[in-house]
Amino acid sequence: MFKRRTLFVVGAGASAEVDFPVGGQLARIISDKLDVRINHGEATSTSDPEFFEQINRAFRSDINEYIRAARLIRDGVRLSNSIDDFLDIHSADLRVQRIGKAAIVRAILEAEKSSKLYVDQSNANTKMDYSRIDETWYMKLMRLLGRANSLANVDFIFDNIAFIVFNYDRCIEHFLINALQQLYGINRDIAAKTVGRLTIIHPYGIAGLLDSGVPFGGDQLNFTNCVALAERIKTYTEQVAEGEVISQIHDEVRKAEQIVFLGFAYHDQNLALLKPSTRLELKRFVGTGYGMSSSDQAVVMNQLAGFLQHSLSHDGQIEYFKVMNTLKCSELFDYFAKSIAA
Predict the structure, then answer these.
(1) Are 29 and 16 found together in one domain?
(2) What is the pLDDT of residue 227?
(3) Which residues is 285 bridged to in the sheet?
């Protein structure tokens, strides 16, 4: 268990440790899925014809306009930082939103199924292969959480932590449900209820609820229903307009005694979602910034300093803002294991 209230802010780089595509890779996958061609008067996707058939069925009466939207995404998404940014650029185009979000769901379900976290749930005896993820941050987090926490106290294991996850996948929920079962010898229902009490906020939505008909990695029903599942996906503009989730995010940011960024790219719009309208009391920020230049590192530290009520000297920023450009998520837990959990 964690001694201090800790908020984990999770970006695409965190899921990369279990073989998920990050921003540019996801954009390329979606671009390929929406490579629509006309053959003998019939439209089809060259890389994922089954997915395009879903689009064709859902929007048959207006399919030519949806083909236009698909081609717009195909040709333009690689010029954007991510599919999220591209959809926000085209927030006024309903067809681009619908087909782009459906492609996101399709790509995420496929990525879940091919990831190191996937478990074939059709066989009740199949367990997660922890040897494949032994050196990932997921395992290192669980070891910190389980330390000195007995079975009798399993209900309280997540009491001092919360997550804000800027990804569409369900990696954290899925991993924790499986990990609790095997660490404590409890059944899935109890593990799922325990994880259900943990605050996990997805500002941009998810591919579906794990225990409400959309298993991790999907199944045949989900793979043929991406258009309907896409309604759970939100763009930055939509999320700001809704307001309720933003209030929840700001509440968690205010309550946290320390904030840990994992695989987070510190994009301006995501920092804007995190930043409350009233500035914060002094608190500690720790995060990965793998491969980031020292000048960008300084920019991010200044942006985080803008969250606080009181200005900090350069030495103060170094003390309270640990944005580490040499560490990946797993390595961050090695480097700061005692200070994060203490």
Answers:
(1) no
(2) 94
(3) 259, 321
Same domain, residue pair 70 and 151: no
Domain-terminating residue out of 72, 88, 114: 114
Arithmetic mean of pLDDT over the chain: 91
pTM of the model as a whole: 0.94
Count of structural domains within the chain: 2
Same domain, 181 and 295: yes
Tell me the H-state helices in the chain. Answer: 12-16, 23-33, 49-58, 63-76, 83-89, 94-114, 137-146, 171-184, 188-196, 220-223, 226-229, 236-242, 244-255, 268-274, 294-305, 314-320, 329-341
The three-class DSSP label of residue 102 is helix
Residue 248 CA: distances (Å) to CA of 106, 163, 187, 244, 253: 28, 11, 30, 7, 9
Q: Position of tokens 């904030």? A: 259
Specify the residue for token string 């608190």: 283
Strands (E), the chain: 6-10, 36-39, 42-45, 161-165, 199-201, 258-262, 284-288, 321-324
